[in-house]
Design brief:
It contains seven helices and eleven strands. The protein is of the alpha+beta class.
Length: about 270
């Protein structure tokens, strides 16, 4: 809808979450933010992006709208962070240990939108695998479901409902799905309203790539996205949002708006 809005959010997270040797700490992060054209005070809201690691590199996996209005926006910046000692292994927990999702809030301004606040994900503590439901363990073990760091931590926390987890598994039988957001790192309310979102309740997930094709990519076949949205409804979702408004289904089961042109939202009420 407005690529500059996402770019403004991403550039700040890159500046805060990456530093050369000797560049750790909030004061250094504030200087990086200021040098990139942002309020240095935002470094105090960076949360887990900052650490005592001697150096760090940050990779943005996806930037998704949490909401966009004419004068305000939420951009969910999904990222992975690499620090010395971080090693990619076959163990999913170790491979996904570095990184988070940050809900970046912006307001319209000239010549550039301004970042006003940061809300990093707070997934909660991890449970032992034996304490998780069978659905949670199956999602974590699935080769067809890709979870970014914060979403992976959400599932490990035990705070994602089985209704959502079982739908992920059902959809993964016919598609490879890459999730952006599950529970944490998402606005508490549906953006621009006072209506609670299903995400913080652990009853929703967002998919940004299906079978290797990004929902937002104009080259992605519409039939693929529409078919996936209908499959999500068939898997039990009462609230399926995406770039296309579909007919059929239960009343108001499908929806589309500016916020959901870059992902498919799959929500549950039980």
């Amino acid at each position: 809808m407005d690529p500059q809005v996402k770019l403004r959010a991403v550039r700040l997270i890159e500046a805060l979450g990456s530093w050369p040797a000797g560049g750790s700490g909030e004061a250094a992060a504030a200087r990086r933010a200021a040098a990139a054209g942002y309020d240095p005070a935002l470094a105090a809201e960076a949360g887990g992006l900052l650490s005592s690691a001697p150096e760090a590199a940050l990779q943005v996996l996806e930037a998704q709208y949490g909401g966009i209005l004419s004068d305000a926006a939420s951009v969910l910046v999904v990222c992975r962070q690499y620090t010395p000692g971080h090693t990619e292994t076959a163990d999913t927990t170790a491979a996904d240990s570095g990184g988070t999702t940050v809900d970046v809030r912006l307001s319209s301004a000239q010549p550039l939108w301004q970042v006003t606040a940061l809300h990093p994900a707070l997934p909660g503590g991890a449970l032992a695998l034996s304490a998780l439901s069978p659905a949670a363990r199956a999602v974590l073990a699935s080769d067809a479901i890709t979870l970014p760091p914060a979403a992976h931590a959400d599932v490990l926390s035990g705070n994602v409902h089985d209704s959502a987890l079982e739908a992920m598994l059902t959809l993964s039988h016919s598609h490879r799905i890459e999730l952006s957001v599950v529970r944490s790192g998402h606005p508490l309310d549906v953006f621009g309203t006072t209506r609670p979102s299903d995400h913080p309740k652990g009853r929703a997930f967002d998919v940004w790539r299906i079978d290797g094709q990004a929902v937002i990519d104009p080259a992605t076949p519409r039939t693929l996205v529409e078919g996936f949205m209908r499959a999500a409804a068939a898997a039990g979702s009462y609230n399926v949002g995406g770039p296309y408004l579909l007919s059929g289904g239960a009343p108001d089961q499908f929806f589309s708006d500016d916020t959901h042109h870059d992902h498919v939202h799959v929500g549950f009420d039980v």
